[in-house]
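Deliverable D5.2: sample structural annotation.
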Amino acid sequence: MNLIRLNSVKSFLLDNRTVRQTIYKNTLWLIVGMGVNRALKAVLVIYVARMLGATEYGKFAFALAFVGLFSIIYDFGISMMIVREFSREPEQDFSSIISLRIILGLVAYAVMIIGSLIVTEDVTIRKIMFVLGLFCLIESFATIFYGYFQAKQKMEYQTYAETFQTILALIVGFFILFRMPSGQNLSYGYFVSSAIALAVLLWFFNRKIFRLNIGRDKAVWRKFLLISWPMALTGLFGTICTSMDSIMMGHWNFITETGWYNAAYKLVIVAMLPAGLISGSFFPVLSRFFKESKDKLQSLYDYHEKIMISLAIPLVVWSVFFAPRIIYMFYGSSFFPSVLAFQLLMVMVGFYFISRPLNDVLLASNQQKKVFLANFVGAMVNIILNLVLIPRYSLYGAAVSTIATYLTMFLLLFIFSLRPVIIKPLNRNILCDIIAATVASLLMGFVISQTFVARWNIFVSSSAAMFVYLVAFFCLIKAVKYFDYRYVKN
């Protein structure tokens, strides 16, 4: 009996049997691979901020944000297109994609070096940028293999690779922090751990998937460059939305403020992880359903959006109430200016959650140019507001501009999904979930705002908040659907 159960669990975790089981399986693996591992990396970053202090950490964060701006050239949107194209037509030339990625990486690194000479005169920050540029090149190269695993819906392989890299990064990172703490030394640690992890990933792929070769099929290059450029520009503008505020603050010498802002932003990135994990499991199936059935596409979108809504609204309410305790717990009193920035940025997280299903449906439906346009407009809004708000309000102005950016992108994605009609982005079922999640979240906020609850340990009070929300949400879902049914019937 135990052997049968063991085989059943093994089959659930490793085999693709049904659509829903495959989504659950892949989500579970992504939670372990991307979620847990990125959360652990965030723990490392939190310790980095605590041990280096706001100013030294601000230098590292400024360098990393600037280098990340060039990640779009490293990737050029190819990773996402690998997921889409290989999930539809598995037998394609992967070796030529490898060579294309190498060429793009070298070009990106050269451009980044030139840019670093312009953006800052600080020699130490420039050195950090040079090393982190190599780190980003390696990290980006690995994503084409992750894209292949996702297309095959074998996220467990991605989990193996990311877990190894995370463990290695934690070991190297903490060794540097306790032995020779500095932003420059930490950049060396990032580079070394990523290089070793890539070597192991290449060995694994070559041994378990198929023998690696470097192809030079220019037709493959042309095909992927043509279909990827909208995603490349989308990624560029998306990176502008997430990094330009730190780059501008660093360039204007708000180094300490950059440290406070990025301390809050790292926690926000952890909060954004569930959206990426869930979308990573839905996207390959959405791509397939677009070709197979519009009804299935609508049904899967509804399911996706309802999950995001039920997570986004309570997460925003919870973070607003607990922000002071969260910042103090992770960073200490010296990072208290991060509290308001964290509260503002968590509002942005809500818009990010509910816009991801729209983003994924448009990409799965070959509408990447519309996604590009939404990100382009968002990036322009971000730059303009940063220019106006950061000089006057520093990190808080950056947070407000980020909220406005993601709100703009959400509204545009919503409009673009209506013409031509791909899916109905808002219907009765989704509206019921919005009502239930909003009322349940407000009730949760009322409970945790009570003085006697605020005195509890943060984990106890958070657990109580979750319990209140879940009970209220499911009761309200039943009630709203019942009255909606009675209304339609009458």
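Annotation notes: The mean pLDDT is 82. The CA atoms of residues 286 and 361 lie 7 Å apart.
The annotation will be released with the project's public dataset once the embargo ends.
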